[in-house]
Specification:
This protein has about 130 residues and is an alpha/beta fold. It contains four helices and five strands. A five-stranded mixed β-sheet has the order 2-1-3-4-5, sandwiched between helices.
């Protein structure tokens, strides 16, 4: 059993986003550790129709929730995303849809969405 409080980040693979998102989760949810689930352009993936990939992400998130007792899942989209090269406005829409998709998993955790802007700062979306 893991010691300490955990949160979960569902984020892009882009290394520029990892530390800012993890730190934001630690600061805003009073957790000690952040489990990382990373997929290119994850904000596009979750509201999409690639059931196999969505199930992979869900399985990883469930490990965090069940084994580490993660209290929050935060899904992130970001500026300059190679895996999902669309406008900020489209990312924001997809982040909101991703939050809804994760909430539909029926887990008893808080779910939030964030945007990592062009200064690598976090903006809460939902």
């Amino acid at each position: 059993m893991a010691e300490g409080k955990f949160g979960t980040s569902i984020n892009c693979i882009d290394g520029r986003t990892q530390i800012p998102v993890a730190q934001w989760i630690k600061d805003n949810y009073s957790v000690d550790y952040v489990d990382m689930v990373n997929e290119p352009g994850c904000d596009k993936l979750l509201p999409g129709d690639n059931t196999a990939k969505i199930e992979e992400v869900k399985t990883k998130a469930l490990i965090s929730v069940n084994a580490h007792k993660s209290s929050v899942i935060v899904v992130a989209g970001h500026h300059d995303c190679a895996g999902n090269p669309i406008s900020k406005e489209e990312h924001i829409t997809q982040i909101k849809q991703s939050v809804d998709a994760i909430k539909a998993w029926g887990l008893s955790v808080e779910v939030a969405g964030v945007w990592v802007n062009d200064q690598w700062q976090i903006e809460k979306v939902q």
